[in-house]
Amino acid sequence: MSTGTQLTTNSSVDEIRKHFSYLTKAQIEECKANFKRFDENQDGNLNLFEVTLLLEAVGRAKTHVEARKFIAEHDRSGSGTINFNDFIHAVFPPDGKPPIVIKGRIAQSSLAGSAKFFEEKAQANTADSKEDLEKKIKAEAALRKEEKEEKRKQKEKEESKKKFQEKFSAFEQK
What we know:
Blueprint lengths: L12 H7 L5 H14 L6 E2 L1 H10 L6 H11 L7 E2 H8 L9 E2 L2 E2 L10 H8 L2 H47 L1
Antiparallel strand pairs: 1-2, 3-4
Helix pairs in contact: 2-5, 3-4
Protein backbone atom coordinates (compact mmCIF):
# COMPACT_ATOMS: atom_id res chain seq x y z
CA MET A 1 0.00 0.00 0.00
CA SER A 2 1.30 3.44 -0.82
CA THR A 3 2.05 5.59 2.18
CA GLY A 4 0.44 8.74 0.75
CA THR A 5 -3.09 7.37 0.44
CA GLN A 6 -5.34 7.58 3.47
CA LEU A 7 -8.31 5.29 3.11
CA THR A 8 -11.41 5.84 5.22
CA THR A 9 -14.70 4.07 5.72
CA ASN A 10 -16.07 6.48 3.12
CA SER A 11 -13.59 5.24 0.51
CA SER A 12 -15.16 3.16 -2.23
CA VAL A 13 -14.68 -0.59 -2.28
CA ASP A 14 -12.81 -0.21 -5.57
CA GLU A 15 -10.42 2.35 -4.04
CA ILE A 16 -9.77 0.09 -1.06
CA ARG A 17 -9.22 -2.92 -3.33
CA LYS A 18 -6.51 -0.96 -5.18
CA HIS A 19 -4.49 -1.14 -1.96
CA PHE A 20 -5.83 -4.38 -0.50
CA SER A 21 -6.39 -6.49 -3.62
CA TYR A 22 -6.48 -9.70 -1.58
CA LEU A 23 -9.72 -8.63 0.15
CA THR A 24 -13.18 -9.46 -1.12
CA LYS A 25 -15.95 -6.89 -1.32
CA ALA A 26 -17.67 -8.60 1.64
CA GLN A 27 -14.49 -8.42 3.74
CA ILE A 28 -14.10 -4.72 2.95
CA GLU A 29 -17.73 -4.03 3.84
CA GLU A 30 -17.27 -6.02 7.05
CA CYS A 31 -14.18 -3.95 7.92
CA LYS A 32 -16.03 -0.70 7.22
CA ALA A 33 -19.00 -1.67 9.36
CA ASN A 34 -16.88 -2.85 12.28
CA PHE A 35 -14.56 0.15 12.17
CA LYS A 36 -17.55 2.51 12.20
CA ARG A 37 -19.07 0.58 15.10
CA PHE A 38 -16.07 1.27 17.32
CA ASP A 39 -15.22 4.77 16.08
CA GLU A 40 -17.57 6.29 18.64
CA ASN A 41 -16.53 9.90 18.10
CA GLN A 42 -16.54 9.35 14.32
CA ASP A 43 -13.21 11.06 13.75
CA GLY A 44 -11.85 8.30 11.48
CA ASN A 45 -9.44 6.99 14.13
CA LEU A 46 -9.77 4.54 16.98
CA ASN A 47 -8.36 6.19 20.10
CA LEU A 48 -7.18 4.35 23.20
CA PHE A 49 -10.68 4.06 24.66
CA GLU A 50 -12.18 2.85 21.37
CA VAL A 51 -9.38 0.30 20.87
CA THR A 52 -10.00 -0.95 24.41
CA LEU A 53 -13.69 -1.47 23.53
CA LEU A 54 -12.72 -3.24 20.31
CA LEU A 55 -10.32 -5.59 22.05
CA GLU A 56 -12.83 -6.34 24.79
CA ALA A 57 -15.39 -7.19 22.12
CA VAL A 58 -13.05 -9.80 20.64
CA GLY A 59 -12.15 -11.12 24.07
CA ARG A 60 -8.58 -9.85 24.19
CA ALA A 61 -7.52 -6.83 26.17
CA LYS A 62 -9.13 -5.63 29.34
CA THR A 63 -6.65 -2.89 30.20
CA HIS A 64 -5.34 0.32 28.66
CA VAL A 65 -1.83 -1.17 28.75
CA GLU A 66 -2.92 -3.98 26.42
CA ALA A 67 -4.74 -1.48 24.20
CA ARG A 68 -1.61 0.71 24.04
CA LYS A 69 0.41 -2.35 23.06
CA PHE A 70 -2.08 -3.13 20.28
CA ILE A 71 -1.89 0.46 19.03
CA ALA A 72 1.93 0.38 19.12
CA GLU A 73 1.93 -2.86 17.10
CA HIS A 74 -0.57 -1.70 14.47
CA ASP A 75 -0.26 2.10 14.23
CA ARG A 76 1.57 2.35 10.92
CA SER A 77 1.28 6.14 10.67
CA GLY A 78 2.66 6.89 14.14
CA SER A 79 -0.42 8.88 15.12
CA GLY A 80 -1.03 7.04 18.38
CA THR A 81 -4.39 5.87 17.06
CA ILE A 82 -5.65 3.19 14.69
CA ASN A 83 -6.89 4.61 11.41
CA PHE A 84 -8.87 2.62 8.85
CA ASN A 85 -5.69 1.52 7.03
CA ASP A 86 -4.21 0.25 10.30
CA PHE A 87 -7.46 -1.52 11.11
CA ILE A 88 -7.51 -3.39 7.80
CA HIS A 89 -3.87 -4.43 8.28
CA ALA A 90 -4.63 -5.67 11.80
CA VAL A 91 -7.69 -7.66 10.80
CA PHE A 92 -6.46 -8.86 7.38
CA PRO A 93 -2.65 -8.78 7.39
CA PRO A 94 -1.14 -8.50 3.92
CA ASP A 95 0.85 -11.74 4.08
CA GLY A 96 0.13 -12.59 0.47
CA LYS A 97 -2.59 -15.08 1.32
CA PRO A 98 -6.24 -14.25 1.65
CA PRO A 99 -7.53 -14.84 5.16
CA ILE A 100 -9.50 -17.97 5.85
CA VAL A 101 -13.03 -17.19 7.01
CA ILE A 102 -14.69 -19.82 9.19
CA LYS A 103 -18.31 -19.25 10.26
CA GLY A 104 -17.92 -15.49 9.99
CA ARG A 105 -14.69 -15.48 11.99
CA ILE A 106 -11.33 -14.48 10.66
CA ALA A 107 -8.94 -17.37 11.20
CA GLN A 108 -5.70 -15.83 9.91
CA SER A 109 -5.28 -12.38 11.40
CA SER A 110 -3.62 -10.70 14.31
CA LEU A 111 -6.98 -10.95 16.08
CA ALA A 112 -7.52 -14.60 15.16
CA GLY A 113 -7.09 -16.16 18.58
CA SER A 114 -10.19 -14.50 19.92
CA ALA A 115 -12.09 -13.36 16.85
CA LYS A 116 -15.54 -13.92 18.28
CA PHE A 117 -16.08 -10.33 17.23
CA PHE A 118 -18.46 -10.88 14.33
CA GLU A 119 -20.44 -13.65 15.96
CA GLU A 120 -20.87 -11.72 19.21
CA LYS A 121 -22.07 -8.66 17.34
CA ALA A 122 -24.60 -10.75 15.41
CA GLN A 123 -25.85 -12.26 18.65
CA ALA A 124 -26.09 -8.82 20.21
CA ASN A 125 -28.69 -7.87 17.61
CA THR A 126 -31.23 -10.51 18.65
CA ALA A 127 -34.75 -9.86 19.91
CA ASP A 128 -33.62 -10.49 23.48
CA SER A 129 -31.11 -7.68 23.29
CA LYS A 130 -33.81 -5.37 21.90
CA GLU A 131 -35.97 -6.18 24.90
CA ASP A 132 -33.02 -5.53 27.20
CA LEU A 133 -32.38 -2.25 25.43
CA GLU A 134 -36.02 -1.22 25.82
CA LYS A 135 -35.83 -2.07 29.55
CA LYS A 136 -32.68 0.02 29.91
CA ILE A 137 -34.27 2.94 28.06
CA LYS A 138 -37.36 2.78 30.29
CA ALA A 139 -35.20 2.55 33.41
CA GLU A 140 -33.13 5.54 32.29
CA ALA A 141 -36.30 7.51 31.54
CA ALA A 142 -37.66 6.68 35.01
CA LEU A 143 -34.36 7.73 36.56
CA ARG A 144 -34.39 11.01 34.66
CA LYS A 145 -37.97 11.61 35.78
CA GLU A 146 -36.99 10.96 39.40
CA GLU A 147 -34.00 13.29 39.08
CA LYS A 148 -36.20 15.99 37.56
CA GLU A 149 -38.73 15.59 40.36
CA GLU A 150 -35.94 15.75 42.96
CA LYS A 151 -34.62 18.96 41.36
CA ARG A 152 -38.13 20.43 41.37
CA LYS A 153 -38.56 19.59 45.06
CA GLN A 154 -35.14 21.04 45.86
CA LYS A 155 -36.02 24.23 44.01
CA GLU A 156 -39.34 24.50 45.88
CA LYS A 157 -37.51 23.97 49.16
CA GLU A 158 -35.00 26.69 48.30
CA GLU A 159 -37.76 29.09 47.27
CA SER A 160 -39.68 28.36 50.48
CA LYS A 161 -36.54 28.93 52.54
CA LYS A 162 -35.88 32.19 50.70
CA LYS A 163 -39.47 33.40 51.33
CA PHE A 164 -39.16 32.46 55.00
CA GLN A 165 -35.87 34.36 55.28
CA GLU A 166 -37.46 37.41 53.63
CA LYS A 167 -40.41 37.32 56.06
CA PHE A 168 -38.08 36.73 59.01
CA SER A 169 -35.81 39.62 58.03
CA ALA A 170 -38.86 41.90 57.67
CA PHE A 171 -39.97 40.83 61.17
CA GLU A 172 -36.49 41.54 62.60
CA GLN A 173 -36.46 45.05 61.16
CA LYS A 174 -39.66 46.03 62.99
